[in-house]
Amino acid sequence: MVQRLKEVDVVVIGVGMVGSILSKELAAAGYKVVGLERGQTRFTVPEFQSPAIHDELRFDIRKALMQDNTREPVTFRNSSSQTALPVRRWESFLPGTGLGGSMVHWNGQTYRFHATDFQLATHTRERYGKGFLDPDLTIQDWGVTYDELEPHYDRFEYLLGTSGKAGNLHGQVQPGGDPHESPRSREYPTPPQKEHFQGAMFRKAAMGLGYHPFPQPSSNLSQPYTNPEGLKLNTCVFCGFCERYACEHYAKSTPQTFILPVLLANPNFELRTGCQVQRINLDSTKKRATGVTYIDAAGREFEQPASLVITSLFAINNVRMMLLSGIGKPYDPGTGKGVVGRNYAYQTMSSVASFFDEDVIINPFMASGASGTLINDFAGDNFDHSGLGFIGGAFIGAVNTNGRPIQYHPTPPGTPKWGKGWKDAVVKYYNHSVMFSLHGSSMSQRQNYADLDPTYRDAWGQPLLRITFEFPQNDLKMAEYVTARGVEIGKAMGAKQVAGAPRKGPYTTQQYQTTHNTGGTVMGSDPSTSVVNRYLQSWDVPNVFVVGASAYPQNASWNPTGTLGALTYWVADALKNKYLKNPGHLVTA
Amino acid sequence: MTRINTQGWKGALVMVTVVGSCGIQLSTANAAAAAAKPSPPAPPAAAACQACHGSKGEGMVEGDRPRIAGQAAYYLDKQLRDFASGSRQSAIMSPIAKTLSDADRAKIVVYFASLPMPAALASTAPTTAQVSFGRQLAFEGAEAKHVQACDNCHGPEGSGVTFSGPALAGQLAPYLAAQLKSWQQGSRRNDAGSLMSSVAVRLDDADIAAVTSYYASLGK
């Protein structure tokens, strides 16, 4: 028996970073908002306190903060000719669950994409000509520009208190920052975190090669900060337990530290946890959402009517919510028609390991999730791709985030994989190695997509999301090229041995790479190639907004969170200033 | 040779590499071991400390002179340097710290760090409710005030973390309270990242009385 609840103005599906920011904006504007979160309520005190929060077995290995894949996994295959199987153990990517969402276990790396990223198709054609691009790639412009997003990037960074050094203020290049970045209107709210030793080694070597190293923008803060919401964050203590963990010190910017206390104090907002949303309900015309149906932790089914539905789930779950709700035409890779699930992309991660003599002491455990040093000289389109046969790039950096004993044990190639030989090498190299991350872009391609699995269902009987993905040749060529540049830097640091590991296919879900899944409900200006318009409003059902990295038409060379924060405030403005004053299509196709 | 902080689960407060084999120690773990052994002879320069902090560094109730026995050598060394440079203010400690040579300071801090942590000295009798509330702040923190657990940096039951927070267990409550007030008012600022002032400004007098009496009650 479905219980029908009293109608509210807005229902928000998923109370993570996007959900909590949008809820706060709309509740403060006077709208009645209900936030539905499938996971549990959790706060810095008591849930995130030490020593329990530093349990590497529980959080790193057993993935305690992640989506429960005994009840709700995804299925995966490399190509349409295969049968997908459920991912029973998260490894490649780690979607979170619970209040605050995946941001609770993020590293705090807070980048902006560059102006050319938002007009990638147009820019590539203009710079390199029509025939340059691999015809399998389905990259496209975002329908929004960097200049339009800049004030929202700024607002997001000041919400978080991000620690960094501007490289370009109003078009003027700033010493010490990233000279390649697109113009900022202001300096970062707080100065960079302290540079660790491997960062200093990297900086010296990169400068010697003529590159432009800069401190990683970090939302693990370098000093105490009070944000515009009046919330106070503390200084990070470099404990090295950011990614996969929650912060015990109020030093990492997460919804718990930068917005939730304000949101939860607003009587216009109601949080309901343990609520598994089954679908967005549509009226008989299929052009208007009437609310959502969810099942609570006791197994009771509810219908929550609402005038406006915002799905603010982790990227892949946004795609699934649209497919389960029958909003938008599912993508068919055979015909190339349809949009929902189209342009699923990821991140092309490579690495370079440099091994030193025992007199070079790295102390890798003295780190935060974003206290590194890096270069953008080979990221995005910051270098000439003529004759290279690919587009995109990677940042290269000594951005190691931890030295945790179970997960961190670099050894040179040729080391035995187990036994005494492996143990001896771990002891020998643990404190004398530097790992570079080469954080590469991911181009969307015709064959990569997400749809509903025909076989496997979740604990509530709903079809799982099926991901079909393989690295495009374009991205593997990019990985090869940037890894060679990384090896040169490792050698310039004076390492005894440098091992480059460019990303190779086939893609596997069994090796951690990064939790940067993008696409599937992409934004754009053409309804035949996008699910949502430039305001992340559904083309088909205009009172549904789909806000997440699922909107990215392809993924750029940087961590996606900063751009998602900017898009979130961009949407908040559109909702408050346009949509809610006059509900309807914000863009005419 | 260079030593590293082996307490990876707690992490390090400051980005330092300690050079020299100067006996950086984990306060409580070694205190137990040290208790079984006869104490090493005090270096002559320690006499200047013993007059106020006690012959075994146990502290004195009169004058709120803190216990220094069993405190991490790194912490004692930093405080003495800070007293000497003026980055930590004390009319009594600064002149003494200024007269110490580097060699004497190194001997003194290793000596007091090697001594067992003595039983707590009680100057006041806290109520059970105070101790209980203090333990909650120390162990768990207070979400409403955005105060994290003291033990996050000061170690389980305030036992200290070498490069992070000093040991608080068994310390004199009035001394701890005076320090929290100093952090709160900004008269003490010799930590990294203003960590202590960030916490102290969120504590009220009842919080301070509770948490300091809890730590003072440990180690008996």
Topology:
The complex is a heterodimer of chains A (589) and B (220).
Chain A: E1 3-4, E2 8-13, H1 17-28, E3 33-37, H2 56-61, E4 74-77, E5 85-86, H3 120-128, H4 146-160, E6 168-169, E7 172-173, H5 197-208, E8 214-215, E9 225-226, E10 232-233, H6 255-258, H7 260-264, E11 269-273, E12 276-282, E13 289-295, E14 301-311, H8 315-325, E15 348-355, E16 373-375, E17 394-398, H9 419-429, E18 433-440, E19 449-457, E20 463-468, H10 473-492, E21 497-501, E22 544-546, H11 561-579
Parallel strand pairs in A: 1-14, 2-3, 2-14, 3-11, 4-20, 14-22
Antiparallel strand pairs in A: 4-5, 6-7, 8-16, 9-10, 12-13, 13-14, 15-18, 15-21, 16-17, 17-18, 19-20
Helix pairs in contact in A: 1-11, 4-11
Chain B: E1 2-3, E2 18-19, H1 27-36, H2 47-53, H3 73-85, H4 93-99, H5 102-114, H6 128-139, H7 151-154, H8 173-185, H9 195-200, H10 205-217
Antiparallel strand pairs in B: 1-2
Q: So what's the overall shape of chain A?
A: globular
Query: What is the averaged pLDDT score of chain A?
Result: 98
Structural classification of chain A: alpha/beta
Overall morphology of chain B: globular
What is the number of strand segments of chain B?
Answer: 2
Distance between the termini of chain A: 40 Å
Give a short overview.
The complex is a heterodimer of chains A (589) and B (220). By secondary structure, chain A is α/β, with parallel strands linked by helices.
Descriptive overview:
- The complex is a heterodimer of chains A (589) and B (220).
- With 589 residues, chain A is an alpha/beta fold.
- Chain A is 21% helix and 18% strand.
- Chain A contains 11 helices and 22 strands.
- In chain A, strands 1, 2, 3, 11, 12, 13, 14 and 22 form an 8-stranded mixed sheet that branches. Chain A has a 6-stranded antiparallel sheet with strand order 8-16-17-18-15-21, with helices on one face.
- In chain A, strand 13 (289-295) and strand 14 form a beta hairpin.
- In chain A, helix 1 packs parallel to helix 11 and helix 4 (146-160) crosses helix 11 (561-579).
- Chain A starts with a strand and ends in a 10-residue tail after the last helix.
- Chain B has 10 helices and 2 strands; from the N terminus they run E-E-H-H-H-H-H-H-H-H-H-H.
- In chain B, strands 1-2 form a two-stranded antiparallel sheet.
- The longest helix of chain B has 13 residues, at 73-85.
- In chain B, 47% of the residues are buried.
